[in-house]
Every structure is written in C-alpha cells, then in structure tokens.
Automatic annotation (TrEMBL):
Coiled coil: none
InterPro entries: Nudix_hydrolase (IPR020476), NUDIX_hydrolase-like_dom_sf (IPR015797), NUDIX_hydrolase_CS (IPR020084), NUDIX_hydrolase_dom (IPR000086)
Composition skew (Low complexity), residue ranges: 147-156
Name of the protein in question: NUDIX domain-containing protein
Top-level taxonomic group: Bacteria
Source organism: Actinoplanes sandaracinus
Pfam families, sorted: NUDIX (PF00293)
C-alpha cells in the first residue's frame, strides 16, 4: 500500500487559479500543469506541508487554509485545501534538483461549477501536455484527472487540454 501523502493548494485570484508548469527529469521530459503543493515530511501535518510547499514553490505566504477533500495523485493521496494568500505576486521557487523541474507559473481560468453547486472549484490536480512526439507522457497521464484547463493558447492531446504559455525562469 502506498503511504506517501501530499498537500495541494487551490489559490484563486480574480477568477483564475494558480498553477505550476513542470517538466519530468526522466527520459522524454513530459510536461504538465499542477497545483502548488508537495509531499509531507515526517511528523508534518497536511496543512503544515501545504504552507511550506506554497512558500517554497511560489514565494506566497498562506494566510488561511481550508481543507476540501482527498484526491489520488501519481505520488500518493493528496489533501486539497482552498487557500488565501497574503498580497504579492507569485514567483518560481528555487529548483533543488529533486522531483520535477519547475519551468513556469501562471494564473489559469477557474473551472466553472453548475449554478446550483456551492462548492469550491477544484481544477484537475494535473493537466498533461503532449510530448514532442505527439504522445502524452505515460507517467503523467496516469495522474491526470478528468477535466480540462482552457486558455488563449492551448495544446490538445485526446481529451487533455492545457494552456502552453507560462512565466518562465
């Protein structure tokens, strides 16, 4: 049984959600968009990990975090929180060479909810971009959740759509 745990942040500002653009360090270099967040360290709660990871990845300070739900992710079950951050613009965190390479960060449109729903608009935790050969990275597809992210510039592979533009290093 996989005991790895993660925490992810849904940070919404002006009708857009903050997403990280990442690239695999493995052969093929697949790319995807994902919510800010990461793994829990020993003895750390999901909320503590969330606050640490959001700061490390975006430079933003979490002022309020509200637990929403648990979702599967390729590297373990993920506790998803809706998050309010202190004022400021996000910036890419320092790359420590472990895990996927962070190559961009951007505010993407928030998925729409049916009018009768009063829930939190949780985007897919991961939206896969096609690799140069036209096939999505198999490891990334395993972790993608249903739904798409729309934008002005899009790349499509089957039912997976993601915006290509990002703020890069």
């Amino acid at each position: 049984m996989d005991e790895r745990r993660r925490a992810a942040a849904v940070i919404v500002r002006d009708g857009r959600v903050l997403m990280m653009h990442e690239r695999s360090r493995r052969f093929g270099g697949g790319e995807w968009w994902t919510l800010p967040g990461g793994g829990l360290r020993p003895g750390e709660t999901a909320e503590e990990a969330l606050r640490r990871e959001v700061f490390e990845e975006t430079g933003l300070i979490v002022s309020d975090a509200r637990y929403v739900l648990e979702m599967p992710y390729p590297s373990g079950m993920t506790s998803v929180f809706t998050v309010t951050v202190a004022d400021g613009e996000p910036r890419l965190g320092r790359d420590d060479g472990s895990g996927p390479e962070q190559i961009g960060i951007d505010w993407l449109p928030v998925p729409e909810l049916p009018i009768e729903t009063s829930g939190v608009p949780v985007p897919p935790l991961m939206v896969v971009l096609p690799t140069p050969g036209g096939q999505a990275d198999a490891e990334s597809v395993t972790g993608s959740l249903s739904g798409t992210t729309a934008g002005e510039e899009t790349a499509t592979n089957g039912d997976v759509t993601a915006r290509r533009r990002s703020t890069t290093k």
